[in-house]
Amino acid sequence: MRVLVVGGGGREHALVWKLSQSSRVDKIFCAPGNAGISETAECLDINADDTDALLNFAKYEGIDLTVVGPEVPLTAGIVDAFKKENRRIFGPDKSGAQLEGSKVFAKDFMRTYGIPTAEYKTFTAYLHAEEYVRLKGAPLVIKADGLAAGKGVIVTESVEEAIDALKLIMREKAFGSAGDRVIVEQCLRGEEASFMVLTDGKTVLPLVTSQDHKTVFDNDKGPNTGGMGAYSPAPVITKGLEKDIMKSIIRPLIKGLKKEKIQYWGVIYAGLMICGGKPYVLEFNCRFGDPEAQPVLMRLKSDLFDALKAAADGRLNDVKLSWRKDTSVCVVLASKGYPGSYEKGKTINGLDSVKGRDNLMVFHAGTDMYNGGFVTSGGRVLGVTALGKDTRDAKTTAYEAIRKIHFEGMHYRKDIADKAIKR
Ligand code: AMP
Ligand code: GLY
What is the pLDDT of residues 77-118, one digit of tens each? Predict the structure, then answer.
């Protein structure tokens, strides 16, 4: 079978790595991929959001399954375009991808189907939003409706900060039309966790749980990033809580999608806040989390190709997922300056010394080749991901490997997984 993976970050490297282990997969292409991915897949000079070029490639190269990593092509309708031409593709269509593409859609959906989430109100007029903020008082969370590369959510601790956030989104249009509608939301306090499932709209297969580390500095300080590290499982999600999440969130969501006639094949990612032992949805994503995919896929024993193909064919009930007992920890190595502006083209040293180990994978997120060696090309550069008999063990292995890797300005958090270890 010939597979095309769309995207070029750490999540896509993990997908390519896991797909390549399937005996059914003969050849993997990745568009655009990165230098690490090119060791396993043939990387294409096609952008992840160039649907026409991707569809042409899939047609002429006889691709059996296309797997979409990032949200932008999904919300733009890549799945609709492929399905129209009867090409097998894993991911939700444009209507399903609205769960991530529009926060207003997702919140209204949750309200309609009784899914627990923070109280909120939607605004299109700045003055009305400001009035509401003054009425409610801090803390409040201000959210741009549309996609904003993970920057459209601002948690504010005072009325002044909330008003500044409204001005930034609604008046200065910092995120363009993504800020045409704004949500003002109650601020929830608790512990965050990520809960992902595979679904074909009928069968739901939960993946193992995970927890991301959003802020750039230790102890959850500094601005939010795409994610600085993750571990799996997330002990905050106990067996009982997992049942509760399935019952109060995932089942009503699947029922709601059916009712709205949205046929959903793909991953549903629920970003959760656990408050007083109860799960609340902060956001839905329509794809695997990044970096969460890295530690989660490290733990998957089953054949990923079989699972994704079955989901894309609407027969996920044929699949059972099995997982390694080991825990996993992924630490992201980022460029100096990330999530702000950063330099590229820094030589990466030491990768050979951590290769070829069963309990360690260095997934590439933003790398390129230059003169036969690896150089940095993104904000998040590498995801050093280790398996261990427990979280402490996995953490030790990941950080030991990191000591051998170097590039100028390399920044990483030192406290990944500490929350799980302290439990
Ligand atoms: P989102 O993109 O909606 O997940 O938001 C990004 C981050 O903002 C989340 O991971 C949380 O850390 C924070 N956040 C979002 N909504 C809330 C909320 N209602 N209360 C507290 N924090 C939130
Ligand atoms: N790590 C958070 C996300 O993928 O959205």
Answer: 999 999 999 999 999 999 999 999 999 999 999 999 999 999
Q: What is the mean pLDDT of residues 146-155?
A: 88
The pLDDT tens digits for 337-391 are 999 999 999 999 999 999 999 999 999 999 999 999 999 999 999 999 999 999 9
Q: Do domains 125-180 and 327-422 have the same CATH topology?
A: no
- Alpha carbon 263 to its chain's center: 21
289 lines ligand 2 (CB under 6 A): yes
State the CATH architecture for 327-422.
Alpha-Beta Complex (3.90)
* Domain 125-180 class, CATH top level: alpha beta
Q: Round to whole Å and give the CA distance between 97 and 285.
A: 8
Please count the residues of the chain: 423
* Residue listed under structure tokens 């939960």: 206
- CA distance from start to end of the chain: 44
CA 251 to ligand 1 center in whole angstroms = 22
Q: What is the atom index within ligand 2 of the atom nearest the CA of 292?
A: 1
As its CATH architecture, domain 2-90 has 3-Layer(aba) Sandwich (3.40)
User: Which residue ranges make up each domain of the chain?
Assistant: 2-90, 125-180, 189-318, 327-422
**d(CA 273, ligand 1 centre) in Å:** 8
Which residue among 232, 269, 281, 330 has the greatest number of ligand 2 atoms within 8 angstroms of its CB, and so is best to mutate?
269
**Cβ proximity of 207 and 133 under 8 Å:** no
Instruction: Read off the pTM.
Output: 0.97
CB 111 within 8 A of CB 186: no
Atom of ligand 1 at shortest range from CA of 214: 10
Fold of 189-318: D-amino Acid Aminotransferase; Chain A, domain 1 (3.30.470)
